[in-house]
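Troubleshooting entry. The earlier prediction with adenosine-5'-diphosphate gave an output that would not parse, so I re-checked the input for stray whitespace and re-submitted. Clean input:
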Amino acid sequence: MCNTVAAQAACSKDQHITWQEGAVRREAKERALQQRGCVVWFTGLSGSGKSTVACTLEHALFNRGALTTLLDGDNVRHGLNCNLGFCEEDRAENIRRVGEVTKLFVDTGIIALASFISPYKRDRDRVRARLGPRDFIEVYLKVPLEVCEARDAKGLYKLARAGKIKGFTGIDDPYEAPEDPEITLEATDASDRPVCPETMARTILNYLESHGYVTAAMANNAVKGPARAIADWTDRKMPVLDYSI
Ligand SMILES: Nc1ncnc2c1ncn2[C@@H]1O[C@H](COP(=O)(O)OP(=O)(O)O)[C@@H](O)[C@H]1O
Ligand SMILES: [Mg+2]
């Protein structure tokens, strides 16, 4: 059953509420952290690799001395959004709340990694508009349904196909692909070879470095390169991830 919290949670129009400016500006926090706050927003079907790539990226950023936070769809639904279901309205409210939380982190200079199916373009674009152009980096896990379904890490596709889960994205609920994401990650490369999560995380890291979110100097803190993890990536096997790239 669908909640109606979206309506209840509509932003207060009370005239007696005024914005309290903090004494420490975002820029000062970013200078202290030597990074620029942003949200890296992972969107894609269930099983496309959002959580895996986000975890890998977070570990890589941590190794560089960056301060990050990880917001994951399933985790957030255990707490902050435990009163929301999966109807369109609740999905919208889920993304709205997460967008607000990421904004709090970004305004503190922190790099927030958010992995949410976020199937509706409108909901994602609302977060983009709320965060502002340089603060929202959309990463589209463009992995075909057949691949996600074959992985079926949580057995959810099987249940959805059997009609035991209703409103499952990609099966009986829509997924609206981003039209102009900052980064698109595909399951296979131009030679049809599988792309491992470490390579995907590296692509995002390169973007963050080249766009000034993290500094090149931080890279000196890196403890390992991607070569070893990629070398493990043979025969389409998942390597045992230690989340270092
Ligand atoms: N690049 C990849 N190549 C192959 N398998 C992957 C890749 N990324 C993730 N996986 C695997 O796919 C499954 C689903 O990944 P997960 O990160 O949980 O997806 P999501 O968070 O999008 O639902 C997991 O078993 C994971 O190990
Ligand atoms: Mg996930």
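This one parsed fine. Strands lie at 38-43, 68-72, 111-115, 136-142, 183-186.
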